Amino acid sequence: MSTPSAAVRAEAARAVARVMAGRTLEDALAAAAVDALTTQNRSLLMAMVYGVVREHTLLTTLTARLLDKPLEKSPDVQALLLCGLHQLRSMRMPAHAAVAETVNAVALLEAHWARGMVNAVLRRYQRERR
């Protein structure tokens, strides 16, 4: 199901993936489709991307611990997981909303195969957080 909140997360994941591929943060955000977003969603996108880039090493380490095998061939899905973990760790939003909308964003990244995996990783993080 595509919602405006899922669209924000998908666009944030694309921007993070661009940064991970070597583009500057400024270039990655300039390439993001922010024109269709409300001011509130634009702010959420920026907070998510800046937060993931700031905590990249920690979030990547967490992702590696939560996955059985790396997602090297799926940079958008890997970036979406980083966004999801950042929401659960550092953003003030209900955990159920962060998980549900991140899982919904998988369809917008056209990675339907990853839907269950993204849900499982984020739920596992919630359980094993401490």
Helix content class: over 70%
Distance between the termini: 31 Å
* Mean model confidence by pLDDT: 92
How much strand content do the residues show?
under 5%
**How many helical stretches?**
7
Strand runs, count = 0
Uncertain runs with pLDDT below 50, 5 residues or more?
none
What Rg do the Cα atoms give?
13 Å
Q: Which sequence of SSEs, written as H and E, runs from N to C?
A: HHHHHHH
Largest sheet: none
Alpha-beta classification: mainly alpha
Shape: globular
List the helices and strands and how they pair.
Elements (H helix, E strand, L loop, with lengths): L3 H17 L4 H6 L8 H16 L1 H11 L8 H16 L4 H14 L6 H14 L2
Describe it for me?
This protein is 72% helix and 0% strand. It is built from 7 helices and no strands. It has helices at 4-20, 25-30, 39-54, 56-66, 75-90, 95-108, 115-128. Helix 1 crosses helix 6 (95-108) and helix 5 (75-90) runs antiparallel to helix 6. The longest helix is centred in the N-terminal third of the chain and has 17 residues, at 4-20.
Question: TL;DR of this structure?
Answer:
By secondary structure, this protein is an all-alpha fold. It has helices at 4-20, 25-30, 39-54, 56-66, 75-90, 95-108, 115-128.
